[in-house]
Amino acid sequence: MQGNDPIHSERHWFVVYTNPRAEKKLSRLFKKYKIEHYLPLVSKKQKWSDRIKTVELPCFQSYIFVKILFWQERVNVLQLPGAHHFVFEKGKPAIVDETILFGLQEGLTNHSESFEIRQEEALQKGKFVKVISGPLVGKVLEIEKRKNKVTVILRFPMLNQVATYEVNIEEIDWEEIQK
After folding, report:
1. CATH architecture, range 7-96
2. What global pTM score does this model have?
């Protein structure tokens, strides 16, 4: 029953649930076996009794993103130690839009000071815009505008979480679209 469903013929980004605290180990294994993946990391200061150290922690605990042909390559992913299962939505593997991952990478790289992960229900819907200048040119994003700041909203409904970060209103131009 494969038909012309794009999930059978194209590579997409999927979400893999990992064993607890196994994200970095699994990322190294994906790299070793040449499986395209993305593990978003955020720098945090951790305090111990004798020192303070900056460590890189996964944005989404126990989750990592892989770009594969799902039905052909899923076993290659799941047989690696640390991979637990794929995240499904409504009985189908949850596909993550590449634009969302690109926006996430942009936020972590260039706007880390305002970057934040929250539960999804804590944030109202914003408006959808197509960016016409700036680092995210051509991307369709959800934003919320406040004074001279724009908050970019990246939704991960399959994880029940959102990532947000602020950009200066002068950094990007956009046109509003209906979605």
Report:
1. 2-Layer Sandwich (3.30)
2. 0.85
Contact assessment for residue 73 and residue 30, using Cβ atoms and an 8 Å cutoff: no
- Which of 64, 50, 58 is closest to 96 using CA atoms? 64
CATH number of 98-176: 2.30.30
Asked if 98 and 36 count as a contact pair (C-beta separation under 8 A), the reply is: no
Structure-token pair, residue 162: 């959102």
Contacts of 12 (CB under 8 A, 6+ apart): 6, 67, 68, 70, 95, 96
CA dihedral 29, 32, 35, 39 (to 10 degrees): 50
pLDDT tens, position by position, 43-97: 888 888 899 999 999 999 999 999 999 999 999 999 999 999 999 999 999 999 9
- Partners of 85 in the beta sheet? 17
